Amino acid sequence: MFALHEQLKFSMYNDRPENAAEMNKLIVSFCNVGIISMKEIAAIPLIVDIKCIKNVNSLTKDFLDPGEVTELEMLDDESIIVASGQHRLIALVKYQQSVEDELASLTKKHDKIRDMGTLTEDHLEMYNTLQDIMGNHMELLETMGK
């Protein structure tokens, strides 16, 4: 859905203007609590013509086992209508961008230390700390769209 977020249709069933305050609350929640995924309460309902689903026979009926929920494969991406959740999706996209921006900044600092000639203990400690934080950010980005 991240890749398609700009072409998704929201207004047909949930015609509300974007609310920056609501999106900011969601972003703060993602930062503080994490992203709740694979739970019915956090699901973003989609309306899709079943003929446009490529893997219709392999779809699960519920969220009981998140490991068994298959990714939706579409034959026609333009047929997706989002019934609600526009603020959640937009907040997720903005949160993803902020994490990517922070990761890019951390990577620059990390590379700068790596390219130094002589390293002090403080440099080594900072290098290792940056590496840990970068790993956490990469893991977060990997799981964010699920």
TrEMBL record:
Highest taxon, organism lineage = Eukaryota
For this entry, the protein name equals Uncharacterized protein
Q: Could you tell me which species this protein originates from?
A: Suillus discolor
